[in-house]
Specification:
six-stranded parallel sheet; single chain; 10 strands; about 15% strand
Length: about 290
């Protein structure tokens, strides 16, 4: 099925509403629809080689203008929708995402980690800010034996540059590129880390932060985008453009076991505020209202 089939199916079903989990909908077709917007990163960080930037510039404004209502993942994204497109706030409802509570939780460690490690989980796109993260890790005093593990799919556009940076800084033995990690292995990876470091320049939500907190893993997060909404008071917030701030936060967590324990406790409490049941019920209420 393609999007051009939707108006026909809509009429056949005599549907009263179409809900799209992406900002896509059949335009000028008589369909009554609600759409979800996850972020406007293609506008904040335009990529001339990606179709997403022109889509967000030229197609999405029409979709959002015709939508009966818009849901999104965070207040940060809601503000972006209003800022970039002039959509009134009353037409937008932020609904937080959640995590798999049956999978992401504190686990009993089977063995001690040979070398403590900081964990990053995500893609290697420039706005993920891995270049500054690597530079920050290079500033951690050599007396601390630790590593930086970068988990996430390799990208031929960006990963080679990051690997070259690691080599230039002489960090080949301390920075590990793990590539894609199966979801079943992520809870153990979170549980054994010193902390998750998530210094991205902007996120529409940031599920890795939520998964880390649910595992009792301390987090270092950017003070921009939706990350502060996700972590609340349960993480160290840093300016992601300031390498020294990222390095200082990592060093503090290496030194202060009491702080790590405190953040672990706060993170578990914060994660408990999110659930897919809440996400689903809030979405259902919006659809019923429309």
């Amino acid at each position: 099925m393609c999007s051009s089939d939707l108006p026909r199916i809509y009429r056949q079903l005599d549907a009263s509403l179409l809900f799209s989990p992406l900002p896509e909908a059949p335009l000028y077709s008589g369909c009554h629809f609600v759409v979800m917007v996850h972020d406007l990163i293609p506008l904040r960080f335009p990529n001339p080689k990606s179709f997403l930037t022109p889509y967000c510039r030229y197609i999405m404004p029409q979709v959002l203008a015709q939508a009966a209502h818009i849901v999104c993942n965070s207040e940060a994204t809601a503000q972006d929708i209003t800022s970039f497109y002039g959509i009134p706030a009353k037409k937008i409802t932020p609904i937080p995402l959640a995590y798999d509570a049956s999978r992401f939780r504190p686990l009993a460690s089977e063995s001690e980690v040979a070398i403590p490690y900081f964990l990053y989980l995500g893609r290697h796109d420039p706005h993920k800010n891995l270049s500054r993260l690597i530079a920050a890790f290079a500033q951690i005093p050599s007396c601390f034996e630790c590593q930086l593990w970068l988990a996430g799919p390799s990208d031929r556009r960006y990963t080679p540059q990051l690997q070259a940076q690691v080599t230039e800084l002489g960090l080949q033995e301390r920075v590990k590129f793990l590539n894609y990690i199966p979801e079943a292995e992520l809870p153990q990876l979170f549980n054994r880390a010193v902390a998750l470091v998530f210094p991205t320049l902007w996120e529409g939500f940031g599920i890795p932060l939520l998964e880390a907190m649910a595992c009792g893993t301390p987090a270092i997060a950017a003070n921009l985008g939706a990350a502060p909404e996700v972590v609340g008071e349960a993480a160290l917030l840093v300016d992601p453009y300031q390498i020294n701030e990222i390095a200082e936060a990592m060093t503090i967590l290496l030194q202060d076991t009491q702080l790590r324990s405190h953040l672990s406790y706060l993170g578990l409490q914060q994660a408990n505020q999110f659930s897919w049941a809440k996400t689903g019920e809030t979405t259902r209420e919006i659809l019923l209202q429309i």
